């Protein structure tokens, strides 16, 4: 098909449905001489969802226009973005992304032999690339780096240096992948303009940038992996698809922030060139549209009912998802999925991949899977203990956890340990629970203890290794590099879900799923409660 298209026709196909193009004159110039080279990148964080069909359908356009397309699995970006992907899972997630992205492309009829797949760490750890990172970091100001990543890199109260490196690495990828243009979501715009500003300073060419709009999710806001109700997982069953579409925001006549209509516009029409509204003959029967604007017009005028629109999208979406579901029925891919996302269930797993240019492309979110590194557990020292003024069964403790001021902790240890034995004791404290009042006094953390189920008289505070100091971080083996949440969202019940798998071994060593809890000095233990629970 591409051989039969003129440069202007190729440009129309490359740019259709995009929200913005930077460097269109460069595109025209290249297309007069040869085929365009373009790349799309995705940070391998949370599980991809159906909004990824938006960049996939655009990639199909690029191939029809004769473009040479590279897909980058940005594993290093996934780690730099506030450690959304734990280091030990990066390789597994790259494999998962490669399998699921290829399955998506196959489901929409894209020939894989015309695509080039690249993993970021295959070249981003080279001597040349690393030197360019240093060169770039000597030019880019902190202000520019932070501004560039504001809509892409996870924003936290105390940002890591890695998040400031992220935009610069994405800019360098354009040079090292030897492309003419980068494709991503419009949320990538500030990173794109940073690339245009600074790459020439390194002696590299300024590239063009192609930007997809951000697709509304099923709730009317941006489709996000971090909002379960806003997205449909690629492996969701037909029943789950029906249930989620039934709840989707699709107000009669309202075409603003309508995720169902957007899916028709940005996925179904580009792929099929038409869309069929299926309905009962008494309501006019089926109607085939060949132009999206006619669908939008009929919906705005309430000639198309939301229920009929949802049912028609449901049928079309299931056709796209069925080949992916079948592919992932294999034992090997089920094992890969469970290994790459070890604590995530089918309906809760996808927590925020940003697709396109290191993570955009019309989809967005954040990665909040259930891993123990989200817990901020520290060594503490009890520096004061007294009875709660309004409850004889509670202690009021002051615990040094390595901060300027001690934390106030309310615990029910009165029945198990004397004030004298608790005073000056080294303990373990969970520090990122939401503070809550207990009999009128706010408890700012939780003192962790071992206990025996069914025997309320047997409770012991957990013991850190000898020589420990207040504030030392406690981690689970294999999850050493994760960063704790600033505050655990009580509605998500992260602590409650992780706590179920916290146990004492038969050797009185604290464990999570048979992995030891540790500090840099050794294992966390208790004195006598073998096989006990931890709470």
TrEMBL record:
Superkingdom in the source lineage? Eukaryota
Q: What is this protein called?
A: Uncharacterized protein
């Amino acid at each position: 098909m591409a051989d039969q298209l003129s440069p202007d026709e190729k440009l129309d196909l490359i740019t259709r449905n995009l929200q913005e193009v930077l460097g269109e004159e460069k595109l025209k110039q290249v297309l007069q001489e040869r085929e365009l080279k373009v790349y799309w990148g995705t940070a391998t964080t949370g599980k991809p969802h159906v909004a990824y069909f938006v960049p996939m359908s655009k990639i199909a356009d690029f191939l029809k226009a004769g473009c040479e397309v590279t897909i980058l699995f940005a594993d290093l970006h996934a780690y730099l973005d506030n450690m959304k992907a734990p280091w030990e899972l990066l390789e597994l997630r790259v494999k998962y992304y490669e399998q699921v992205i290829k399955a998506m492309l196959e489901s929409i009829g894209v020939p894989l032999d015309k695509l080039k797949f690249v993993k970021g760490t295959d070249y981003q750890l080279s001597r040349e690339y690393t030197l360019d990172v240093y060169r770039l970091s000597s030019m880019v100001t902190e202000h520019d780096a932070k501004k560039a990543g504001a809509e892409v890199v996870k924003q936290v109260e105390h940002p890591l240096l890695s998040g400031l490196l992220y935009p610069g690495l994405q800019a360098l990828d354009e040079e090292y992948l030897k492309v003419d243009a980068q494709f991503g979501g419009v949320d990538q715009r500030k990173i794109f303009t940073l690339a245009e500003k600074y790459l020439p300073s390194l002696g590299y060419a300024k590239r063009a940038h192609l930007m997809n709009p951000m697709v509304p999710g099923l709730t009317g806001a941006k489709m996000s992996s971090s909002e379960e109700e806003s997205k449909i997982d690629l492996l969701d069953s037909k029943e789950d698809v029906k249930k989620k579409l039934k709840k989707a925001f699709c107000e009669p006549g309202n075409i603003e922030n309508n995720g169902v209509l957007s899916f028709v516009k940005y996925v179904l029409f580009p792929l099929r060139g038409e869309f069929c509204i299926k309905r009962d003959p008494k309501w006019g029967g089926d109607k085939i549209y060949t132009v999206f604007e006619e669908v939008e017009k009929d919906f705005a005028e309430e000639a198309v009912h939301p229920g009929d629109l949802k049912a028609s999208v449901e049928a079309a979406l299931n056709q796209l998802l069925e080949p992916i579901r079948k592919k992932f029925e294999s034992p090997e891919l089920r094992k890969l999925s469970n290994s790459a996302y070890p604590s995530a269930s089918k309906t809760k797993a996808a927590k925020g991949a940003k697709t396109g240019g290191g993570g955009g492309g019309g989809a967005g979110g954040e990665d909040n899977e259930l891993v123990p590194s989200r817990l901020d557990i520290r060594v503490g020292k009890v520096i004061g203990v007294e009875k709660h003024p309004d409850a004889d069964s509670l202690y009021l403790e002051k615990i040094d956890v390595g901060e300027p001021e001690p934390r106030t902790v309310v615990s029910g240890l009165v029945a198990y340990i004397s004030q004298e034995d608790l005073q000056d004791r080294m303990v373990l404290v969970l520090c990122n629970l939401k503070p809550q009042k207990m009999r009128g006094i706010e408890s700012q953390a939780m003192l962790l203890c071992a206990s025996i189920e069914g025997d309320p008289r047997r409770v012991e505070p957990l013991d850190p290794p000898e020589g420990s100091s207040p504030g030392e971080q406690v981690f689970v083996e294999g999850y050493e590099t994760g960063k704790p949440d600033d505050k655990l969202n009580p509605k998500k019940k992260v602590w409650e879900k992780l706590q179920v798998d916290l146990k004492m071994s038969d050797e009185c060593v604290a464990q999570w799923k048979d992995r030891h809890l540790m500090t840099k000095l050794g294992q966390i233990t208790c004195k006598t409660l073998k096989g006990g629970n931890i709470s």
